[in-house]
TrEMBL record:
Protein name: Formamidopyrimidine-DNA glycosylase
Keyword Electron transport part of the UniProt annotation: no
Family: Belongs to the FPG family.
Cofactors: Zn(2+)
SUBUNIT field: Monomer.
The keyword GTP-binding appears for this protein: no
EC number: 3.2.2.23, 4.2.99.18
DNA sequence: CTTCCCCTGAAC
DNA sequence: GTTCAGGGGAAG
């Protein structure tokens, strides 16, 4: 479900509600979501820990404990984290509940059960989650046109696919890659090696602007977040191309098209995001 | 490179 | 009934 802006939203809502809390008890309803180190050890290690902070890296969340231990969480497609009063109804597909000292609960809900939890002890290096392979954060000042062109400029793959490569830029998924390419005016199926300096500049700028916009627009209170069950995000109605095939482009009124790239759907405006080959024919 | 897999549910 | 879904890893 969530990409970087949504995961950041989850972090901003959840962190203030768990900092300083002690975990009194842990219930796991579906062990599949525990990737490491196994259900029973996970429960044993987590019980009694006191939360110090929460952080986000790409689409990963980490809960840091006073002991130095931490829990890394990836929500994948449909994972949701909620802080709920103990008497709040248990949603279907609730796989994990941690009872907190304030009398509330941290709950994990995941319809498709693709999400994963890892418990890492203080002295354990993270060799399990994949976080160590992440590239730059979109808002990192080192993420520039030169960085993108240097890392991707000779690749044959399409720009749409490469924007999903978490080892280059961390946190972009299928929604935001569509939105970023629309904002850049780049045809999603364009091969990286066909893009020029100006294209990379617009893409670098759009990555920052669209991701920052996504985070800002998602801003909400903890009450609103709970009411939306941690799965309703504010910016969804304002996306400009994702999920809008057949509708008219807000900029030029052309009909937004949907194509398949690397096995995933991609929505784009054929007029605002013209293929370079067509464009070069037009300016002859 | 493409295809499949992990899962459930909504839309068609 | 079939297809698709905001992720990611493994297998062919």
């Amino acid at each position: 479900m969530p990409e970087l802006p949504e995961v950041e939203t989850v972090k901003r809502i959840i962190e203030p509600q768990i900092v300083g809390q002690k975990i009194l008890s842990v219930t796991i309803n579906h062990p599949q979501v525990i990737a490491y180190p196994g259900e029973h050890l996970f429960v044993e290690l987590l019980t009694g820990q006191t939360v110090q902070s929460m952080s986000r890296r790409g689409k990963f969340l980490t809960i840091h404990f006073a002991s130095g231990d931490r829990v890394v969480i990836h929500l994948r497609m449909t994972g949701q984290l909620l802080i709920a009063p103990m008497d709040y109804p248990i949603e279907k597909h609730t796989h994990f509940i941690a009872e907190l000292s304030a009398g509330s609960e941290l709950r994990y809900i995941d319809v498709r059960r693709f999400g994963r939890f890892w418990y890492l002890r203080a002295d354990e290096t993270d060799a399990f989650t994949g976080q160590d392979k992440l590239g730059l954060e979109p808002l990192d000042e080192n993420l520039t046109a030169a960085y993108l062109q240097g890392n991707l400029g000779k690749r044959k793959k399409t720009i749409k696919e490469m924007l999903h490569d978490q080892s280059i830029v961390a946190g972009i998924g299928n929604i935001y890659s569509d939105e970023i390419l629309f904002a850049s005016g780049v045809y999603p199926k364009e091969k990286c090696l066909d893009l020029d300096c100006d294209d990379w500049s617009r893409i670098a700028k759009a990555i920052k602007e669209i991701i920052a916009w996504g985070i800002d627009t998602n801003e909400m209170t903890a009450e609103e977040y709970l009411a939306g069950k941690g799965k309703e995000y504010r910016n969804t109605p304002h996306l400009r191309v994702y999920g809008r095939s057949g509708q008219l482009c807000a900029v030029c009124q052309s009909e937004i098209e949907k194509i398949t790239i690397g096995g995933r759907s991609s929505c784009y405006c054929p007029s605002c995001q013209m293929k370079k080959s067509i464009y070069s024919d037009l300016i002859k």
